[in-house]
Amino acid sequence: AEVARRAILSDGASRASLGWQRTTLGGLAVALARAELARLGLAPSSALALEAICARVVHDHEDALGRFAPIRERPGLPRALARTLGELRLARVEDVGDADLAKLLAAYESELEATKIADRARTLAIATEVARTRDDVGPLLLVDVPLRTRAERDFLEALASKAPAAFAVVPRGDDRSLALTMAALGVTERDEHVPDANDGPLAHLHAGLFGAADQAQ
User: Fold this and answer.
1) In whole angstroms, what is the distance from residue 11 CA to residue 64 CA?
2) Taking the model in full, what pTM does it have?
3) Which has the closest alpha carbon to 43: 133, 135, 118, 140?
4) How far is CA 210 from CA 27, 144, 172, in A?
5) Full DSSP string of 140-177
């Protein structure tokens, strides 16, 4: 909101600025993927729905549990599986390297297909393909958007490839987000900003709490 306000003021009081939208990376992915999800008959998932799917996997695929069989009755297993399998899909791992996890992942993906549910990885994949075909992507401004996975990086890369300009601010110390953001934007250098006397008190407070911010553009 502060960025939009300053941009409008810099254009002069008599001019209007349209098209500013505040959202999250996940929210933007769902918005872009919505039409294609509907065409495919898929519904975006909730965390509870994914846990239910994993509970079904545990119940219906006992022969695939392997070393997890002794804890199949533990109430926390479906949630742990949902988190682990979701991370593997977001990382787009082709070779899990673990026979038991590979079987569970295959069963999980089969259940996703059968129930017509799109998890975060599927939604991001669809949104990435949609973004690559769009010609109406405006300038991108990302402030403290944490990137954690290859799927998120690929989505941002697709958006940035269509945007006339992109600017990102990453909190200092979040090396993973910084590396993924720089890769997505195709930059190899970064600027470090340290608040000076011309910056407002919030900038100094942010610097004091979190350190300087790394910028990539």
Assistant:
1) 62
2) 0.78
3) 118
4) 26, 11, 7
5) EEEES----SHHHHHHHHHHHHHSS-EEEEEETT-HHH
Burial class (CB in 10 A: 0-12, 13-18, 19+), 160: buried
Q: Map residue 192 onto helix, strand or coil.
A: strand
Sheet with 213-216: strands ordered across = 140-143, 166-171, 213-216, 191-193
CA dist., res. 49 & res. 45, Å (int): 6
- Between CA 10 and CA 192 the distance in angstroms is 24
Q: If we measure between CA atoms, which residue out of 154, 158, 120, 130 comes closest to residue 43?
A: 120
Burial 89-118 (b: 16+ CB within 10 A, else e): bbeeeeeeeeeebbbbbebbbebbeeeebb
* Residue 119 DSSP class: -
Cα–Cα distance for residue pair 170/35, rounded to 1 Å:
31
Question: Is pLDDT larger for residue 215 or for residue 24?
Answer: 24
The model's pLDDT over 6-53, given as tens digits with 9 standing for 90+, comes to 554 555 545 555 566 778 888 989 999 999 999 999 999 999 999 999
Q: What's the pLDDT band for 189 if we cut at 50, 70, 90? A: confident
Could you tell me what percent of the chain has a pLDDT over 90? 49
